Amino acid sequence: MLNLPKEKKIILFDGVCNLCDSAVQFIIKQDKKDIFRFVALQSDLGQEIIKYIGIDAKNIESVIIYQPGIAYYYKSEAVLEIAKSLGGIYYFGTLFSIFPTSFNNRIYDHIAKNRYKWYGKKESCMVPTPELKAKFL
Q1: Is 22 helix (H, G, I), strand (E, B) or coil?
Q2: Up-side HSE of residue 44: CA atoms within 13 Å toward CB?
Q3: Which residue among 31, 90, 122, 127 is least packed, with the fewest CB closer than 10 Å?
Q4: Residues 6 or more apart in contact with residue 12 via CB below 8 angstroms
Q5: What is the pTM of this model?
Q6: Of 14, 27, 8, whose CA–CA distance to 67 is shortest?
């Protein structure tokens, strides 16, 4: 069994993707209630979590939110859950939930498929600053 903070929502992200890194930095700045913790999908812990929740590691092209012992969200549902959790003006992002998940996931998949071409890729995962280290597992 994984030893994860039960009261936090864990965001698993592509640690070498520039778009994903920018999204993580944005979420950290907006996370006034300290809701989220972050784990790179490429890390040992990231791989352990996706195996634990039963997602095939071979075709991970998605952000995942995992709430230990409660649920996990994948692709567009994860993005909507982030918007809902951040609240405020970002809550309006949940309006996209009026569309079928399959429609939202097609848009998500198109962006995910092209993210390296459009935004670039790093050689390795970012190393958090000492101030941000507590946000990463």
Answers
A1: helix
A2: 1
A3: 127
A4: 38, 39, 40, 41, 46, 49, 50, 63, 64, 65, 66
A5: 0.89
A6: 8
